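Progress note, sequence design subtask.
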């Protein structure tokens, strides 16, 4: 069984993430969405909320594709998370050349830690390449419409969260 790990903070999950998840299911038998606990980033949503958003979106993808997709929170090294979930492949989404430079360094470090875990890059679809969770949150904070960038349930959660602040 080919197990893939798609890690990220997913704060919040965007249409770009959903695109990568959907396409990654064609490459693996089981896809684990690694939801990173990254205290340094100061997420807008709690870990539980981010996992719930991922699970809701992945349930739709699973229903459409028949793929096995699970959410897995993690706070350890990416390579250790890959071992924990039995992943042989790490899936990384790329939006632009700037993403590649960072990802290239990460792959190099991960290969030193364990050269049996491969990294596969998937380019975001052109219509999703500008979407970044950080920008989505900023637009939403300033009252802009982010419905084109995030699934409907995430849009509602963003509006609710920012309204309550």
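Output:
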């Amino acid at each position: 069984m080919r197990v893939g790990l798609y890690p990220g903070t997913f704060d919040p999950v965007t249409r770009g993430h959903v695109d990568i998840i959907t396409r990654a299911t064609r490459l693996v038998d089981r896809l684990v969405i690694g939801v990173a606990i990254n205290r340094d980033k100061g997420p807008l949503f709690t870990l539980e909320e981010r996992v719930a958003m991922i699970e809701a979106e992945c349930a739709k993808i699973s229903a459409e594709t028949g793929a096995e997709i699970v959410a897995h929170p993690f706070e350890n090294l990416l390579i250790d998370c890959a071992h924990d979930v039995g992943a042989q492949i790490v899936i990384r989404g790329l939006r632009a050349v700037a993403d590649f430079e960072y990802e290239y360094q990460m792959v190099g470090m991960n290969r030193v830690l364990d050269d049996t875990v491969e990294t596969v890059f998937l380019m975001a679809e052109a219509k999703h390449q500008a979407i970044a969770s950080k920008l989505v949150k900023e637009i939403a904070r300033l009252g802009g419409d982010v419905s084109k960038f995030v699934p409907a349930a995430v849009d509602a959660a963003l509006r609710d969260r920012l309204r309550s602040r």
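The chain has one domain: 3-163. Work on this subtask will continue into the next period as scheduled.
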